[in-house]
Write a structure and sequence with these properties.
It contains 10 helices and 12 strands. The protein is α/β, with parallel strands linked by helices. The strands form 2 sheets. It has a 6-stranded mixed sheet with strand order 2-1-3-5-6-4, sandwiched between helices. A 6-stranded parallel sheet has the order 9-8-7-10-11-12, sandwiched between helices. It is globular and about 60 Å long. Bound molecules: 2'-monophosphoadenosine-5'-diphosphate.
């Protein structure tokens, strides 16, 4: 779909891409090309299937070919850090890079997943995070980024519940300097559930093809509670459907994907991201998938 300001590819075109393995399922090329069209930026964004042994050479390629920016996805978010010139503090604490900015051959790594999540949560639910009590379910890579970004918003308490308790406790310890954090097992959710203002799923429970999965018991969900999922395939997970039925405010996972891309676009171009056009094209692609 050509936007109203579509610019043809020519010798001035600035190049971008996403490095992943697998990568053909990625909606980033669709979303970012739409953003460039909408804003009239002469740029093109493609998907690159980079297998683990070739990541270093691919990063050298960013410098050699003068790409302005690259997104990095599974499984490269950690390994890529050693090939960059600078790592932004957030990405260093999270331990993962998903966005690279090339400033005249000098590559800086950022992590826009966590801040993208928080911006989406605030814009879509209107929640004020300061003083809130938050229950995070999951303690893997995605949880690290999101929980760190949430912790910086000044909540009163973050409980991190995970199937593997050690990982929840380790993440809670890493973030203890930012807010009150507690790591625990999934069975301990029942002890604190009536104190919770916001629940966030950061496990793969409910994700296609396991659409019948729920990360936690939802029988205590109530009006006034905000229930947020980071799974966006399907767009409305079982947990969110049950939350809606209980009268809770829901926050679907697609927003995190859109806003991590919005921040990347803004770092690269300095232009506010055309978020609604980006969302529209991704929703249409997922609906037709
Ligand atoms: P991601 O990068 O998406 O965070 P990950 O690092 O593999 O992926 O983390 C997956 C998360 O989902 C973990 O919290 C994992 O729990 P464990 O740490 O105990 O493995 C959680 N998870 C995955 N499958 C699960 C299941 N069937 N029940 C409960 N938690 C599950």
């Amino acid at each position: 779909m050509a936007g109203k300001n579509s610019v043809p590819i020519n010798t001035e075109t600035v190049l971008y891409g996403v490095f992943g393995d697998p990568v053909r399922q990625s909606k980033s090329p669709l979303m970012l090309n739409r953003a460039f069209q909408e804003t009239g930026v002469n740029a093109a964004y493609a998907a690159f299937h980079i297998t683990p042994g070739t990541l270093r050479a691919a990063v050298e390629g960013i410098r050699a070919l003068g790409f302005r920016g690259v997104n990095v996805t599974i499984p490269h978010k950690l390994e890529v850090m050693q090939y960059l010139d600078e790592i932004h503090e957030d990405a260093r604490v999270i331990g993962a890079v998903n966005t690279i900015v090339n400033e005249n051959g000098r590559l800086t790594g950022y992590n826009t997943d966590g801040i993208g999540y928080v911006r989406s949560l605030k814009e879509e639910t209107g929640i004020q995070l300061a003083g809130k009590r938050v229950l995070i379910v999951g303690a893997g890579g995605a949880s690290r980024g999101v929980t760190y970004a949430l912790a910086k918003e000044g909540p009163a308490q973050i409980w991190i519940a995970n199937r593997t308790v050690d990982k929840a406790q380790a993440l809670a310890a890493d973030l203890a300097g930012l807010t009150q954090t507690t790591g625990m097992g999934l069975d301990q959710i029942t002890d604190i559930k009536h104190e919770v203002d916001l629940v966030v799923n950061l496990t793969s429970q409910g994700m296609h093809p396991n659409v019948a999965g729920v990360p936690l018991d939802t029988s205590w969900f109530r009006p006034g509670l905000v229930v947020s999922d980071t799974v966006y395939n399907p767009l409305l997970t079982r947990m969110l459907r049950e939350a809606k039925e209980a009268g809770a405010t829901i926050h679907p996972g697609l927003g995190m994907f859109i806003y991590q891309g919005a921040f990347a676009f803004e770092y690269w171009t300095g232009i506010p991201a055309p978020v609604s056009a980006m969302r529209e094209v991704v929703e249409a692609a997922l609906a037709g998938a």
